Amino acid sequence: MVGMATKRRQDYMKQAHTLAQKYKEQPILEERMKAESLGLVKGLRDKLMRWEEYERTMLDKTLVSALAACILGIKENTTNQKLEKCWPIIVGDMLPPLTKFLAETKEYIDSGVLRLGDQTLDFADKSLLGVVPGAIDLETDELRGINPEEEGTLEAEQSRAQGKTWPTLASRVARYLATPTFSFYNLGEYLVAQDQGFKEMRRVAKHDKKTCIDCKTYDESGWSPIGELPMPGKGCRCYDRCRCYIEYR
Ligand SMILES: [Zn+2]
Ligand SMILES: [Zn+2]
Prior knowledge:
Elements: H1 2-7, H2 9-23, H3 26-45, H4 51-74, H5 80-110, H6 137-143, H7 148-157, H8 166-177, H9 180-195, E1 200-204, H10 213-221, E2 224-225, E3 245-248
Antiparallel strand pairs: 1-2, 1-3
The protein binds zinc ion (2 copies).
The site of one zinc ion has 7 residues, from helix 10.
C-alpha cells in the first residue's frame, strides 16, 4: 500500500490542492469528507463498486483529505515545501491502521457479517455521526456527556466500534477520511509557526466532559518548547476526536 501511495504522490498533491481550494476551511472539509464516507460505504453495500475499487478509493481519499487539511493549515500559496514535510507523517500515521481496517472489513464481507446488497438498515435515516451534509457531529457527541473511554467501552459492548454493520462501518470510515483532518490542519499550522520563529507552544483542551486525562495533562503543563508537544489527536486517547488547539508564542 505504501508503494502504491508513493507512486501516486504527485497526483494526490494536485487533488489535495483542488480540494483545499474548494472547501477553504477545515470544518467544511471535515463535513464534506463525512458525507463522502457515507457515500463510499453505501456504494460498496449496494454493489455500485467492487471491493478493489472501494479499497483504492479509501486509500486515495484518506491521503488526499489529510493533505488538503495540511494545505489549509499552512495557508500559503507556496505550500509545496511544507507539504512535502507532511507527506511522510501522513503516510506513517494513516496507512498502518488503514491496512488493518481494510483487512477487517474484507473479512466481515467474506464471512457474511456484512452482507453486500443488504438494505435492511437505511443509514441515510440514522443521521449517523451527523453525516448528513451540513450537520454538526461533535456537538451531538458532547451532549451525550460521556468521555471517550466510556464511549469506547460502550461501543465495544454494542459491537459498534467493530464496523460489523453498514452504518457503523461508515462511521469508522469517517475516522480515516474526515476526523483526522483536524490533526493535519494543526500540523500545517505548526510548520508555519516553526518557520516564523515561534519558540514555545501550548495545547489548550476543550474543557468539557469529553476531554480525556491526557489532554487535561497537556493543557495543565502549559507552555513548552516548540516541537515538544504532540499535535491534537496524537498522544491522547481521544485520537482523531481530540479537539484541543495549539497556541504559539
Ligand atoms: Zn484527549
Ligand atoms: Zn484533546
